[in-house]
Write a structure and sequence with these properties.
Elements lengths: L2 H17 L7 H5 L6 H18 L5 H10 L4 H4 L4 H4 L6 H10 L4 H13 L3 H23 L3 H12 L4 H12 L13 H4 L2 H12 L1
Length: 208
């Protein structure tokens, strides 16, 4: 591959990455509420994988993050199949990924990350798989808090798919934590008065 062909292949790769934002996650069709693109799922999964690496100092963080970024990349070509669809047939996602890897100068590296994640034999691959499930678990928790009773029932099977102690520990906290807790506190007087003095008081309390 000469320099011009290499740059052309990278340009096509960038546009292919963009289609992931327009590729819907099909599990929401059966859940009945919510929506998410494959790109959104990949991004939050990667953040979760990064956090799991903090809890797993022996893991190779770079490999975990790169596996997370690419684990569903081929769905731009195959679309996403939920668990009901997979029961009756699976699209050739591995074949699609091979085609993608063959078209870019960094394809061998991509293919190695994808193969490791699919095999689920290494610590890093198991962390990525747990990050994938934790992203879905967090989504189900968010939909539950919006009033979807079905989402709560689905959480049980999602939690059972977690393989690592770190994943299960985070999963328990996800299910016990309100999705708004990072920004909203019903006892925070700021949300009533918007008085700056309450922000200062809250910061002082955190220091204690």
């Amino acid at each position: 591959m000469n320099k011009e062909d290499e740059l052309q292949s990278i340009a096509r790769f960038i546009y292919e990455a963009g289609i992931l934002a327009n590729t819907p996650r099909s599990g929401f069709w059966f859940l009945g509420t919510g929506k998410q693109s494959v790109a959104e799922h990949l991004l939050r999964t990667t953040y979760i994988a990064y956090a799991l690496c903090h809890l797993t100092p022996t893991a190779d963080r770079s490999r975990v993050i790169l596996m997370s970024i690419f684990h569903d990349f081929a769905e731009g070509r195959t679309s996403d199949l939920n668990y009901v669809h997979q029961r009756y047939g699976r699209l050739a996602e591995s074949e699609a990924f091979k085609d993608i890897a063959a078209e870019v100068p960094f394809g061998k590296e991509m293919a190695a990350f994808y193969a490791e994640e699919q095999a689920k034999e290494t610590l890093e691959a198991r962390l990525v798989k747990d990050a994938d499930q934790l992203e879905w678990l967090a989504t189900l928790r968010e939909e539950e808090l919006k009033g979807n009773a079905k989402a709560k029932a689905w959480q049980k099977s999602a939690f059972k798919r977690l393989k690592t102690p770190q994943g299960r520990a985070v999963g328990k906290y996800l299910l016990a934590t309100h999705s708004d807790s990072w920004w909203f506190d019903s006892d925070d007087k700021w949300f009533v008065s918007r008085d700056p003095k309450f922000i200062k008081k809250k910061k002082q309390q955190k220091k204690k």
